[in-house]
Amino acid sequence: MLEIDALTKRFGPNTAVDAVSLTFDKPAMIGIIGASGAGKSTFLRMVNRLTDATEGRIIFEGTDVTALKGKARRGWQSRCAMIFQQFNLVPRMDVVSNVLHGTLNRRSTLATMFNVYPEADIHRAIEILDRLGIAEQAPKRAEALSGGQQQRVAIARALMQDPAMILADEPIASLDPMNAQIVMDSLRRIHEEDGRMVIANLHTLDTARRYCDRVIGMRHGRVVFDGRPDQLTVGVARDIYGAGADFSESATSTDLETLDRQPDAAATAKAFV
Ligand SMILES: Nc1ncnc2c1ncn2[C@@H]1O[C@H](COP(=O)(O)OP(=O)(O)OP(=O)(O)O)[C@@H](O)[C@H]1O
Ligand SMILES: [Mg+2]
C-alpha cells in the first residue's frame, strides 16, 4: 500500500530523517514514538508532502508521491489528511464551516470566497460530526469548544476529504487524559470501521501500546524499532528513548517496570475499543 524507500531529510548539516525505509502492506493503526528531535514530525510532513524530502522515495499504490507537483501534489495531500497537536482550526469560524474546509481542495476559488457549500457537503459534515459525538457543537465557533472537541473537529475536517490515511502529529499532546482517550478512541474507530490507515506520532509509550497494531521507534532520524506493541520491552524502550539517566518517565509516562508485566498489549488495546 505505502512504501517508504530510504527517505531522508537534511537541514544543513543536521540529518533529521536518515534513510528511513518502511513498508505498510495494509491499513493499520501505527504509532511512531521517539525522543524529542528524533524526526517524527519531519517524517510525517514528508509523507504528506508538506516538506520535500532531500533523498528517497514515497510510493503509494504504485505512484511515486515524492515526484508529484501542483494539483497532483494537492490531490495527494487530501488522500493523506493531516491533523496536528494544535488542531489548526479557524478559531472564529463556526464548527461546520471548519469541517467544510476539508473540501477546499476540490472547490473553486469563487465558491470558497463566498462561502458557498453544496447542501450535500453540509449534510455530510454534520453526519461526520455526529459520528464523532459533537453534532450539537456544529453552529458554535471553534474557539468556544474544549481542546478535545476541537481535535474531533479537526478529525471531522480530515474525514471530509475521505482520505486513505490520516497522519496525526501528536494529536493528544495538548489534551487532558479524558479528552486524549476520546480522541484516540475516535482515531481507532475510524481505522477499524472505515479501514483507513492511521499513522500517529505519539509522545507517550502507553498510548502507542494501547491503541496501535504496530509501533515504530525512531532515534536520531533512524528507525530503531518496528514491531508489535507487545515486543516493546524495557530494553527496547530504553534504546528508542536513549538509555539510562536520560530516560524520562514523564516524557513517556510509562512505568518501565510495568512493561514486562503486560506482555499482551494488543489484547489490551482490543478490549479497550
Ligand atoms: N524547519 C527546520 N529547520 C531546521 N531544522 C529542523 C526543522 N524542522 C526540524 N528540524 C530539526 O530536525 C530534527 C527532527 O525534528 P522533528 O521536529 O522532526 O522531531 P520530532 O521527533 O517531531 O520531535 P518532537 O517530539 O519534539 O516533536 C531536529 O533536530 C530539529 O531541530
Ligand atoms: Mg514533532
From TrEMBL:
Residues 2-245 form the ABC transporter domain. Keywords: ATP-binding, Cell inner membrane, Cell membrane, Membrane, Nucleotide-binding, Translocase, Transport. InterPro entries: AAA+_ATPase (IPR003593), ABC_transporter-like_ATP-bd (IPR003439), ABC_transporter-like_CS (IPR017871), ABC_transpr_PhnC (IPR012693), MetN_ABC_transporter-like (IPR050086), P-loop_NTPase (IPR027417). One of its GO terms (cellular component) is membrane. Pfam families: ABC_tran. GO terms for molecular function: ABC-type phosphonate transporter activity; ATP binding; ATP hydrolysis activity. SMART domains: AAA (SM00382). PANTHER family: AMINO ACID IMPORT ATP-BINDING PROTEIN, PHOSPHONATES IMPORT ATP-BINDING PROTEIN PHNC. This is Phosphonate transport system ATP-binding protein.
